[in-house]
Amino acid sequence: MSLVRRIARPMLAAMFVAGGLDQLKHPGAKAKAAKPVVDQAAKVGLPDDPELLVRANGVAMLGGGALLGTGTLPRLGSAVLAGSLVPTTLAAHAFWNETDPQARAQQKIQFLKNLGLLGGVLLAAVDTDGKPSLAWRARRASHDAQRSVSTTKREARMAARAAKREAKLKAAQAKNALT
Q1: Where in or outside the cell is it found (predicted)?
Q2: Domains in the chain: how many in total?
Q3: Are residues 104 and 173 in the same domain?
Q4: Distance between terminal CA atoms of the chain?
Q5: Rounded distance, CA 109 to CA 120, Å?
Q6: Could you tell me how far CA 147 lies from the centroid of its own chain?
Q7: CA-CA distance, 179 to 169, in Å (whole number)?
Q8: What DSSP designation does 47 have?
Q9: CA distance readout (Å), 137 to 19, 54, 77, 163
Q10: Segment 9-19 mean pLDDT
Q11: What pLDDT does 35 receive?
């Protein structure tokens, strides 16, 4: 792992670990802000208990942050963090609903901060740490298999031609031996 990754991953994860712990310890204040998002989520079958969902989001943030920060399954941890960040941002920083200009500006700043964090965890989710991704490996294996098939076909054609030449040579030798 590069030095930059070793330093940057825990730095990026710190906000999520701290936020996740806070959501687990004090879900009440966040549950009020999450109520409109929870009401929408209830329509698709999720529980309609805001405190439960805030705590679940806290667990996701804490777990994803720990995975990313320790470098253990950092891509999975980053994907979990990205998934938890979207509802958090929509619930807590809906600046478009604010009427007070100062509160609106503050919420917009927090919204953009979370948007930047989302960009960071998305980059971390696709970071392969210098190793080829699974998609690249699959394409490479397919390419290698196609090349192997082409090589095998070419070798088979060459062997058939050689066998044909050999058969003609043997036939000519046999004909010469009879005469």
Answers
A1: Cell membrane
A2: 2
A3: no
A4: 78
A5: 17
A6: 30
A7: 16
A8: -
A9: 36, 38, 22, 38
A10: 96
A11: 84
pTM of this structure: 0.71
Are residues 86 and 118 in contact, defined by beta-carbon separation less than 8 angstroms? Answer: yes
Helix then strand then coil, % of the chain, to nearest 5: 85, 0, 15
7 three-class SS = helix
Q: What is the Cα 29 distance to its own chain's centre?
A: 31
Q: Are residues 121 and 138 in the same domain?
A: no
Chain centroid offset of residue 93 CA: 25
- Count the Cβ atoms, other than its own, within 10 Å of residue 67: 21
User: Structural domain of residue 104, as residue ranges?
Assistant: 3-126
Pairwise CA distance, residues 168 & 61, whole Å: 76
Cα separation, 5 vs 12, in Å, equals 10
Confidence check: pLDDT of 100 > 90:
yes
Instruction: Please check whether residues 27 and 58 belong to one and the same domain.
Output: yes
What distance in Å separates the CA atoms of residue 76 and residue 89, rounded to the nearest whole number?
A: 20
Which pair of structure tokens corresponds to residue 147? 């090349």
